[in-house]
Amino acid sequence: MTTSAIKLSILDLCSVSEGATPADALHNALALAQVAEAEGYNRFWVAEHHNMTGIASAATSVVMGYLAAGTRAIRIGSGGIMLPNHAPLQIAEQFGTLESLYPGRIDLGLGRAPGTDQSTAQALRRGRTDGEDFPLMLEELRKLFATPEPGQRLRAVPGAGLNVPIWLLGSSTFSAQLAGRLGLPFAFAGQFSPDYLFSALRLYREHFTPSEQLSEPYAMLGINAYLADDREQAHYLATSHQQAFLNLIRGRPGQLPAPVHSMENLWQAHERHQVMSTLSGSLIGDPQAAGEQLEQLLERTGVNELIVNSPIVDQSARQHSYRLLMQLNRQR
């Protein structure tokens, strides 16, 4: 059994609650990042999603600058930047700027999915949307961060020669294998793709080749967590995310709904199965129940770090959930 604390981090989608604004969500993100720093969380990441009324972090690097300016030491990162949506030079310059302003605090997590629907992806990319050129774009980006060679004409300024750690993110096995071959840290999206978890971790470790950035595999797992002082309250808080995902699979994505005391009248049996299966990578309950779930998760996966998503409407309850999680982690 695992008996020592594991590194904990936070993934924030900057959820816009029903009746609130994107500005509210961004201010809530900063308040949470400040709590995370005080509680000892390792990093605070925000994610790129587009054309979604319930997510305010589309301009991810801009949000990161806001969060870094409002904190002092916690690592700020992207979970992730969807690289095929951007020119590698733009990302190198943006993250080079962030690293120049907040040295030693910036993480660049990269994904190859569009982070949106296909029509929006087409509007962003103005070309292919299948992500098949991701490895080539990644190679180009890494070269832009490297120390320039004599006579090199194209440079990222700022960016070239800076140490911005690159992570690969994935919800299947493609990025797991690529991260292993390149010797990069890997973050798996277990918060919404639990089915591929074990195969992705296995392939990452099997394919791992040491690199200048990393000498041995380093895997971070995304999970959802809803903790409260009693189990009933924790399950109540979790219903906001369940409703949001139910709306998504019905083709009606929107803002984060208020929690409800029962979901039974809101979904059909097959919808309940789909939602609960997709969100099965979750810790729900009071500290005792969540602690037992945490132990089982770490024993089964052997990951080095957890990055936790807690889409809870009530911000005080959300912050309390993260505090409870860190407390039980320290007591392990």
From TrEMBL:
Domain Luciferase-like: 19-304
Superkingdom of the organism of origin: Bacteria
Pfam families named in the record: Bac_luciferase (PF00296)
GO molecular function: oxidoreductase activity, acting on paired donors, with incorporation or reduction of molecular oxygen
TM stretches of this protein: none
One GO term describing the cellular component: cytosol
SUPFAM superfamilies (alphabetical): Bacterial luciferase-like (SSF51679)
Family according to the record: To bacterial alkanal monooxygenase alpha and beta chains.
The name this protein goes by in its record: Luciferase-like monooxygenase
The species this protein was found in: Halopseudomonas sabulinigri
